[in-house]
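Hey, can you fold this?
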Amino acid sequence: MGNATSKAARKFPKRAEPPTWTSTASSSPQAFPKRPDQSIEQDAQDSNYMSNLARLGVAKVDHHMQAVRPHQKSREMIESRVQSEEEAASMHPSRNHIQASTLSYLLDKSKSHASRQEIRELADKYNVDIEKIEGLSRYFTTPSINPNSVVRKVRNEDGEEELSVLAIWVEYRGLKA
């Protein structure tokens, strides 16, 4: 912003100032100068500086702003984790809270031409609303295994088997009535 001449020149002390604990006469704080000094007047004459200030415009102050309390969000996050851990450790898990592997299983069943009654029974078994499963199935999916791509290889004499499959994506088409 502005020319180099419009910036105040840096001045470094020629010698180190004595520590404050030494017995020197305390100086009174300098009062704000009543007249603008040379650098302020040069800034006022700088056209680039003035055009940039004009482009910024008047400061807008939001009087309805609330104080920022970063510790509040941290506390809420910790409380949420504690509540989640308590629900996970509980003998009676809350409704519609399941593990990711269970959710994957339910999503697979919902797209594998299972009837609505079968999905309802599974949803009741895992304590999940069927509407939640249907809603998730519309927007999320899991990889499915192409049944024609299963390849089994025996690796050694002990009977260790290697299984390779091809994953495919199957679109959700809604549950059958």
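Oh, and this one too while you're at it.
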Amino acid sequence: MRSRTTVELFQYWNDVRGNRDLPRRDEIQPGDIRSLLPNVFILQTEPAGGIYFRLAGTNICSLFGNELRHRQFSSLWRGDQQEDIGRIARQAIESCTPIVLAASGATAAGDWLDLEILMTPLASRDGKGDRVLGALSPLSGPMWLHMMPLQHLMLEQVQENSEVPEMLTRAGNTVIRLDTHRSPIRRAQHLPVFEGGRRN
């Protein structure tokens, strides 16, 4: 984890869940993470299999120049990665496994922004996992940030276990495996690495 927002949100999620696999949505108190809210989002699953933004913080919406509520999460990503992104989010929920994505965002002018994305699973009141509490954080502050909207995101990798603090490994030893032939996954201890990379 490279972003303070990522670390603090994960710590909060971990504290709220206690000894359970995941906390319930109604246990998340916005006032407890007030300083993080501009970079926080919640995703929700749909019966048809889609995953959409239930809410998105102001900084996230500003990055894309649009309100993201009700928009499909996968629609933010490069076309050939959208199906895989949906699988990652769904399997994070189904496996009760928080994951950290290293990503980059591109503007229409060809500028790039490195980002870190945390996805932690949440349950509804009945205990069924159906949501994601996450954070999307820029890792730098170029002059054009929030003035030139991002056109799409590109997944670089799911970070190796050695790149995240000890508290993330405590979250569980589940390996997330993607059922895809286009995007090979190589195992890196507890977490997989998505073989992405920018295409010019």
